[in-house]
Amino acid sequence: MKKARWRCIPSPPCFFSLTGINREIACEILGDYGLLVETAENGAEAVEMVAKSQPGYYDMVLMDIQMPVMNGHDATERIRQLPDKALAAVPIVAMTANAFDEDRKDAEKHGMNGFVSKSINMKEVAEALTKFLRA
Which of 15, 45, 54, 70 is deepest in the core (most CB within 10 A)? Predict the structure, then answer.
């Protein structure tokens, strides 16, 4: 089985701190599960990284909703509008501290495929990975 390459897109205000320590810890934990993790500092950078990649390079994007420069909803909408339909279809899973039903519906409305809550819950992440990652 190949190692999955996916994106861990952080947000300073909640689970990921301004110092980046929590992000580093989270990405290390995910790496311990065999994931190859790349990060972006904000939503605009996330869009750029996906847009410049080749189809299939990222198996899944874990998108924080609250980010500087461009939030996760807007970043997801921009990714969905990419001219390369394969890139535009990459599975995107919302990550947020707001875990109410309306937040889940809002994520779906913006084109996200799944939803996990902060702080990182490996059971939820594993379920999302199982659902969206290719073998």
Answer: 15
Check if the beta carbon of residue 36 is closer than 8 Å to that of residue 6: yes
Please list, in sequence order, all residues whose beta carbon lies within 8 angstroms of the beta carbon of residue 10, skipping any fewer than 6 positions away: 16, 20, 23, 26, 39, 40, 41, 64, 67
In tens, the pLDDT along 49-62 reads 999 998 888 888 88
What is the number of alpha carbons within 13 Å of residue 80 lying toward its C-beta? Answer: 14
CA atoms within 13 A on the CB side of 83: 1
Number of domains in the chain: 1
CB under 8 Å to 131, separation ≥6 — which residues?
Answer: 114
Pairing of strands 92-96, 114-117: parallel
Q: Enter the tokens of residue 135.
A: 């073998």
CB 87 within 8 A of CB 51: yes
pLDDT at residue 85, rounded to an integer: 97
Q: What is the CATH classification number for the domain harbouring 117?
A: 3.40.50.2300
Q: Which domain holds residue 13?
A: 5-132
